[in-house]
Design a protein that fits this description.
This protein has helices spanning 12-15, 42-49, 121-124, 128-139, 157-168, 180-189, 201-208, 221-231, 252-257, 272-287, 304-312, and strands at residues 2-5, 17-20, 30-40, 66-74, 86-89, 104-108, 112-114, 148-152, 172-177, 193-196, 213-218, 232-240, 261-264, 295-300, 317-321. Strands 3, 4, 5, 6, 7, 14 and 15 form a 7-stranded mixed beta sheet that branches. The protein has a 6-stranded parallel beta sheet with strand order 10-9-8-11-12-13, sandwiched between helices. It contains 11 helices and 15 strands. The relative contact order is 0.15. It has 2 domains: 2-126 and 293-321, Quinone Oxidoreductase, Chain A, domain 1 (Alpha-Beta Complex); 130-268, Quinone Oxidoreductase, Chain A, domain 1. Helix 4 crosses helix 5 and helix 4 packs across helix 10 (272-287). The chain is of the alpha/beta class.
């Protein structure tokens, strides 16, 4: 099969290569997907960069955890009904060496979901990490129906999913963005109100939620924690999935006096039942009219270096085509 891989970490142009590898075959409980599209997430780029100093977990890595395509082989214990089904998958390169940047990928059957009719493989390849992270961030502190949820970074991949999922769950959603284009994206995802970050941000949020915010979904924990504490109501909660590379401070006593619940979210290690519930709800959103993501670039596998560089530049959603 044709595949992209790296055998050492570093800049995309220095370490990523494209070539031929033996075709893989599924083991017990696994399926093989003939990949049509492979999603590029910031986490995939950070693994390749060794941003967190974890080193190379395997001697060769095919990157990308998310993808979509058609199942063409199943392993022992997996129903043959899966063969021929269009699916999207997640976690292909979580604790495993070979992800979706290849003609074939192998994943456990409980890490695939049917791709709804009318939804493109490119959209399906974008769902895994951001969608599952967003679902966990929305629901981890309990039901949000009738509550006010602030989504920081509401125009990002996780943020857009969080807006859509929180609205579907019955929350009143305030989206926080930093650009006019981001405002349009957040509103299109369903945010009830959208506010730009700036000097009056906290005052504008308080005007919309004078009794405080029930739950905050946070993309930049270190940058926003001080304002988050100002905005939360007593007993409120924060679910955060990202921060800068430095050591983040925690305003301990303010959080204590407000009885704040704080959740740190790493998508690789969510419970399986949480991931499967997320996949079900994401599909339901797509089936009932959610348009999904604005895909900025779709590049062939041979241009995977450029795809990684675009993600590093903050281009937005980038997909590698493996058709």
């Amino acid at each position: 099969m044709k595949a992209a891989w790296y055998e050492k970490q570093g800049p995309a142009r220095d370490v990523l290569m494209v070539g031929e590898m033996p075709d893989p075959h599924p083991g017990p409980g696994e399926v093989r997907i003939c990949v049509a599209a492979s999603g590029v997430n910031p986490g995939d780029v950070k693994k390749r960069q060794n941003a967190f100093d974890y080193g190379m977990p395997f001697s060769r890595v095919i990157p990308h955890s998310d993808g979509a395509g058609r199942i063409d082989e199943v392993g022992d214990g997996v129903s043959s009904d899966w063969i021929g089904q269009m699916v999207w998958c997640y976690g292909a390169q979580s604790y495993r060496p070979f992800g979706t940047a290849a003609e074939f990928t192998i994943v456990p059957v409980d890490q695939v979901a049917h791709l709804p009719g009318g939804v493109s493989a490119e959209q399906g390849a974008c769902l895994g990490i951001p969608g599952i992270t967003a679902h966990r961030a929305v629901h981890i502190a309990g039901p949000v129906k009738g509550r006010i949820v602030l989504v920081q970074g509401a125009s990002g991949a996780v943020g857009l999913c969080a807006v859509q999922l929180a609205v579907r769950a019955g929350a009143r959603v305030i989206g926080a963005v930093r650009s006019t284009s981001g405002e349009d994206l957040a509103r299109h995802a369903g945010a009830d109100e959208v506010i730009h970050h700036g000097p009056e941000f906290a005052a504008q949020v308080r005007a919309l939620a004078p009794d405080g915010i029930d739950h905050i979904i946070e993309v930049a924990f270190d940058a926003n924690i001080d304002v988050d504490v100002q905005l939360l109501k007593m007993g409120g909660s924060i679910a955060t999935y990202a921060a800068g590379y430095g050591v983040s401070k925690i305003p301990f006593w303010q959080l204590v006096f407000q009885n704040t619940r704080l959740f740190f979210l790493g998508s690789d290690d969510f419970p399986n039942e949480a991931k499967m519930a997320a996949a079900q709800d994401l599909n339901a959103a797509l089936e009932t009219g959610w348009a999904g993501f604005e895909i900025r670039e779709c590049l062939p596998l041979e241009q995977i270096v450029r795809a990684h560089e675009l993600v590093e530049e903050g281009c937005g959603r980038v997909v590698v085509s493996v058709k």
